[in-house]
Every structure is written in structure tokens, then in C-alpha cells.
Amino acid sequence: MDIPGAQAKSRSGSQAEIKRRELAQHASFFLKQHSAYDMIPVSFRLIILDTKLLVTKALSALVQNGVESAPMYDSTENCYAGMLTTTDLVNLIQYYYTNFSYTEAIEDLGQTQLENYKELLLRFKSRQTNTLCANPLDTIYEVSRRLLATDYSALALVDEDTDTGGDVIVSMLSIYRILNFMAANIDDKKRLKQHSLYDLDIGTYGDLITSTMDVPVIDIIRMFVDNNISVVPILDENGVVLNVFAESDIILLAREGMLDELDTPVSEALALRPDDYPGVHTCKQNDTLYSVLDTIRKTQVQRLIVVDDDIRPVGVVALSDVLRALII
Questions:
Q1: Contacts of 108 (CB under 8 A, 6+ apart)
Q2: pLDDT tens readout for residues 111-121
């Protein structure tokens, strides 16, 4: 026997799926029309780390320049050697905090060159060096698919030196820049306004890892490593979102020379942020994809916390979640 309600629900679900696919086809077509080269700025700063550098000096370069990742270059083999990231720093902190004193950690890292970094990373849950790269002439669609096949948020654009045959690191390309480029340049923005996060099933929901202001920073770092996440929402006693603690906050701690004070409560660590820090940004499941992309473009935020009407967290939307919904 046919059930009218079930048939209506099925038709509604099918129509929603058709609209989702049409949106992804439109966005994918746009990304296929542009190469990674189109996204290289006219003027930009690129930090490249020689693999002969000591790990301590390389991490110091990240910290002092306020960047979350930098490509490594093997000047002996003239080749791209992977990426040093904030996530690697977090794993290093967790490993050494658990097994050594701060002084022992500095001494050990002060004797290790980046070229031996792969062996060092093997101590951390089989984590491997990010060697992901693309050619500047690859389409943004190809680059996006490559990024989404991993848990990395950026890759290096690497070309060939026609004289030597060696690698030339041209630039870096991140998911943030891809979404920013799309939000600014895609022509049919009406489609983006027709779909909500709920419609597109964008985000991670349920069983969120959260914390409070009085928790020590080292406990947050353990949450990052144990759960393979890069942000933890910070709540008040009523479960309302007050802030977030992200991997980028570790850079601020390192800049202040506080890596030997990881028992510091989160509240003190968050106070180190500069006045222009983008802060925490929230959204709701019924927000449109257009409004989310607009927020990302205007605030340079790396993720949004999805909240209910009482501003309690129900999910997290990462930039990769948004890009994945726009790719076929």
C-alpha cells in the first residue's frame, strides 16, 4: 500500500538532492575554469624553510612571522620537501610535555634538522609530513579535490626550473583562499542563497569536544592530538559559547615564550590575542551558504561554531566542509 506522506517526503528529498547536485555542478564548473596560477597575488610574502635548518629555528620562524605553515626545501636535492605546520608544533608539544622536561625538549630539537623531521614525526600516531603539492597550472578544481582527499588545509604550488630541472616553490594555496576566491568571483550568487547549511548537510554535529575557561592549555593540546581536531569551543557554566581555542593560539603562546607554562588556564592564553584577532564566529543551521561564505571572506575566520537559539554549540563548520559541498 502506498503511503502519501512517505511519497511526499521522498519527492522532497529527491528534489533537495537534485538542487544540491546542481549547485555542486555549477561550483565545480567555475573551479575548472580557473587555474591555481589565477589565485597567486601580485605581491605576497612566502617563507621557505631550508631542510638544513634546526627544528627549533624553523619553528621560531613560524612563530615570529605569525604563519601557521611554511614549505620546506631540500637545497641539496633541489626539491620540495613538505610543509611544516602548526599541527606539527602541537604534536611536538604534546610528545615532549609527556616524556621530557622543557629543557630536554629544547636540547633535543636544537640538535634535529628539518631533513630528519620525517623520522621525528613518526613518534606521533603515524603522522606524516605534508608533502602535498600542485602545479600552478592545475585547475582550482583539481587542487580542491587533492586537498579534500587529505586532512590538510593548504598545499604548496611547485613548478620546475627549466634550467636545472629542480623544484621551484611558487606559492601556497589554502582552502580559505579558494573559498574566498569563489565567494568574490562566482557569477550566480543566487544559487548560494537558496541553500542552508542544513540543506547541504555541511558541518560536524554531535559529541563535540568542548572546554571551559579554567582548563589548562596542555589539556586543550591533548584534545587536539587525541581527537585530530584544531579548535575547541570554550563554554560558560551554562554551556553557552564564549570563545574558541585554536591551534593558532599556540603560536601566540610560543611568541610570548610561554611554552614552558602550559598549565596556564585558557582564559589567560586567550588574553594574549591581538586586538584585531577575528575572534569566534557562530552561525545556525538555517543560515545560507552565501551568508557563511560572506562571513568567511570578511573575517578570515577558519571555522564557524554552529549554535542553537540559546547559543549552545551543536556543531562545527570547517572550511573543508564548505568546499566539500561545492565539489562533485
A1: 96, 100
A2: 889 888 767 76
- pLDDT of 129 higher than 70: no
The answer for 126, left when phi > 0, alpha when psi is -120 to 50, beta otherwise, is left
Distance CA 260, CA 258 (A): 5
Q: Is the dihedral of CA 165, 167, 170, 174 positive or negative?
A: positive
pLDDT for position 276: 77
220: which residues sit within 8 A by CB, 6+ positions away?
211, 232, 245, 266
- Report strand pairing: 154-160 vs 167-174: antiparallel
Check whether 124 has a pLDDT greater than 80. Answer: no
Q: Distance between CA 148 and CA 144 in Å, rounded?
A: 6
The bridge status of strand 313-318 relative to strand 303-307 is: antiparallel
Cα–Cα distance measured from residue 282 to residue 160, given in angstroms and rounded to the nearest whole number = 42
6 grid coordinates? 512517505
CA distance 174 to 152: 9
Give the containing element (helix H, strand E) for 316: strand 313-318
Could you read off the pLDDT of 54-91 as tens digits, one per residue?
988 888 888 888 888 899 999 999 999 988 888 888 88
Alpha carbon distance, N-terminus to C-terminus of the chain? 36
DSSP-H helix ranges across 73-174: 86-99, 102-109, 117-121, 140-148
